[in-house]
Prior knowledge:
- By secondary structure, chain A is mostly beta strands.
- Chain A has strands at residues 5-7, 10-13, 19-24, 31-38, 42-50, 53-56, 65-71, 74-79, 88-95, 97-98, 101-102, 106-107, 111-115.
- By secondary structure, chain B is mainly β.
- Chain B contains no helices and twelve strands.
- Chain B has strands spanning 3-6, 11-14, 19-21, 23-26, 33-38, 44-50, 56-59, 62-65, 75-77, 86-93, 101-103, 107-112.
- In chain B, strands 2, 5, 6, 10, 11 and 12 form a six-stranded mixed beta sheet that branches. A four-stranded antiparallel beta sheet of chain B has the order 3-9-8-7, with no helix packed on it. In chain B, strands 1-4 form a two-stranded antiparallel ribbon.
Amino acid sequence: xxxxxxxxxxxxxxxxxxxxxxxxxxxxxxxxxxxxxxxxxxxxxxxxxxxxxxxxxxxxxxxxxxxxxxxxxxxxxxxxxxxxxxxxxxxxxxxxxxxxxxxxxxxxxxxxxxxx
Amino acid sequence: xxxxxxxxxxxxxxxxxxxxxxxxxxxxxxxxxxxxxxxxxxxxxxxxxxxxxxxxxxxxxxxxxxxxxxxxxxxxxxxxxxxxxxxxxxxxxxxxxxxxxxxxxxxxxxxxx
Lengths: 116, 113
């Protein structure tokens, strides 16, 4: 089975440019997460969707960051304008949350973003 | 609120040494507990999990036992290999049925031949 698919795997962009990261969750999963990983702050949950609806976006750093999930099989994380401090690895993850509880969260391989 | 605390790294061991990475948690109720592993340049992979007290999760020679009385979920392996060098994350599901996973800060393991 295909896992969580993220693109691009690597991106180098100049400060001020718009960056769009994409994610395809595992088919049948109803929850999607965007995490950011840096050396200084470790793993941070940015936003969490359930059934395509944003449930918790308290981790989104500022208005430059936005995330959408137009359907069950696709999500984007956009940074506009980008800044050097946004350089990090961005992980998308998905899971199935249902009446029987919460199942394992599966992670994509990450999008490695460098803003110069 | 819910939280996870791991021992600080890096942990450096020789091949075939015993490994213990400590993990303690603070949570209401009975959270499910997880260990994830991140190899260099890769994403996080589930290593093992336990969903109730006294459960033991195991995989690839690693084990962790859910200890409710000490609120701990320490990761252990009897004989590490160079290929085990990675960052290990302890995690739990937060309170409620939100599906939100709370991670510890990660512990880097380096195994030398």
